[in-house]
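Protein in question quoted for reference:
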Amino acid sequence: MGTTLTPEFWERFAVLLVAAMAVTFVLTALFDALVVRMKDRRGHRPPPARAPHRPTITHHRTPVHG
């Protein structure tokens, strides 16, 4: 028992497909904007305090063996 797909079915299918794609694109754009905004807010914080860097300068010459 095969049924044929009527032109009305294809019209509704096309409308629903386009509507679903539009909703997907809009939600994706909103979530992307939200993520960018959240990351941007994190970037304005001062960096965490680090231990001061101690220079490793030696005041003597390295011996050269020949």
Observations:
- The mean pLDDT is 84.
